[in-house]
Design goal:
The chain has 421 residues and is an alpha+beta fold. It has two domains: 194 residues, no CATH class; 214 residues, no CATH class. It contains 14 helices and ten strands. A hairpin with a 2-residue loop joins strand 2 and strand 3. The protein is elongated. It starts with a helix and ends with a helix.
Length: 421
């Protein structure tokens, strides 16, 4: 009995699917125009949600690349915005190397601590000169906080940090511009500020463009702190301290320890406000939440309007279909078809029509992701959960659009329906 009922349900589903395809084949233009709203609505939903999901993943990856569980101690607060009170921060003292050394003693819960200076300058090789190159000078814990993958050559050794040896590690894009073939860079000597020579000992593996910018290692040159301070004034090179939390301490607890330690190091009285900023990288993602939320709302608004229009189009198709099949409906009811069977057939047919429209929109989004991925700095993809969401929306829209025509068909008098033409 159960197996017979299952076969009956599958027969109803298959019949409804064939009728939907027949409707699409026999009235291509009418059906396509009626489904255009569904197609555009699904296109809007999938394209917006997929783009936002891809952007969020890229932003989160970029934030993670700045250092997992890492706090940046700087004079500047990393917040931004139109109301950014820069005048409160501009006169603050910059971070110093000695403060980093004291923090090692005062904050034992910190896993790694690095002191960094950065600037932009030029680099020359033979008759080629590049300007605006990012220069980063760091102490020995930098590669423990940052994930730096060396493609060829090597990274700095402890002796290089201690002696300030004139060695540099170069980004892939910089090496490509200077040498044509980046692999030729390792072992070559370039000229820095004031004609100072430096030997390239390592080449950073190509990373690709970052959405947020971040470190942008492809267009950067890494120095040891002791070498870079020989070329540039430390106080003019945006000095900062990077502190990474240990496994057994939270970011919030580490911030409390760092705040107390920095206030002690700078001898601030209890009534004085902090003259430093503790920038928690993990909370930067919250800055983008309102932006992504607004984009989601805009996408859903456009999609909802399109789906309502599409719903009326599908309902119109179903009303016409009921009128065209009136005699068939009467014949089915005359030989024993129940109301719920007739109603189920039309509801499923309406749902299948919406799914066809949704699949057209899905194909269009897939083509769009290929185009966007080649143009944008991050890869755009369609998450599986969004595809299932789109299918669910198509089913809901189809059932909603077909419920009145299906109800009318189910309540027809079989004798009157058979006599109709």
């Amino acid at each position: 009995m159960y197996i017979r009922a299952m076969f009956r349900y599958w027969e109803i589903i298959w019949t409804s699917f064939k009728m939907a395809l027949q409707e699409f084949r026999s009235n291509k233009l009418r059906t396509f125009l009626s489904l255009l709203g569904i197609t555009f609505g699904i296109f809007c939903i999938i394209s917006v949600l997929s783009t936002i999901a891809s952007m969020q993943l890229a932003v989160n990856n970029d934030i993670k690349s700045l250092g997992n569980k890492t706090i940046y101690i700087d004079k500047w607060q990393y917040s931004g915005g139109p109301d950014y009170p820069w005048w409160r921060y501009v006169k603050r003292p910059v971070a110093k190397l000695e403060e980093m050394r004291l923090l090692r003693l005062k904050v034992p819960d910190a896993a790694h601590i690095d002191f960094e200076i950065e600037t932009q300058s030029s680099i020359d090789y033979q008759d080629i000169s590049l300007s605006g190159v990012n220069f980063y000078g760091n102490t020995e814990d930098f590669d423990k906080i940052q994930q730096i993958t060396i493609g060829s050559g090597r990274y700095f050794q402890q002796a290089d940090f201690d002696r300030g040896t004139p060695y540099i590690v170069m980004g892939h894009s910089i090496a490509e511009k200077l040498f044509g073939n980046p692999e030729r860079a390792v072992g070559s000597i370039v000229r820095l500020k004031g004609g100072r020579p430096a030997t390239i000992i390592g080449l950073i593996q190509k990373q690709g463009q970052s959405l947020l910018g971040g470190w942008d290692y492809d267009n950067s040159v890494l120095f040891t702190y002791n070498f870079m301070r020989q070329l540039f004034k430390e106080e003019n090179s945006q000095p900062k301290i990077l502190v990474q939390a240990g496994e057994n301490i939270s970011i919030a607890a580490l911030k409390d320890e760092l705040r107390g330690a920095m206030r002690s190091i700078r001898k601030l009285s209890p009534t004085e406000e902090d003259n430093f900023a503790l920038n928690d990288i993990d909370t930067l993602s919250k800055f983008f939440d309102p932006i992504f939320s607004g984009m989601n709302i805009g996408g859903w608004a456009i999609a909802a309007l399109s789906l309502v229009v599409g719903m009326f189009g599908v309902a119109n198709i179903m009303f016409v279909t009921v009128r065209e099949r009136t005699s068939q409906i009467g014949l089915k009811k005359a030989i024993g078809a129940k109301r719920k069977v007739i109603m189920t057939e039309f509801l499923l047919e309406s749902a299948f029509l919406c799914i066809i429209g949704g699949l057209i929109g899905l194909v269009a989004v897939f083509i769009l992701t290929v185009v966007f991925s080649s143009v944008l700095s991050f890869k755009v993809f369609i998450p599986v959960d969004i595809i299932f969401l789109a299918i669910g929306i198509c089913l809901f829209t189809g059932v909603s659009a077909g419920i009145i025509p299906a109800f009318i068909a189910a309540r027809m008098d079989p004798v009157v329906a058979i006599r109709s033409k």
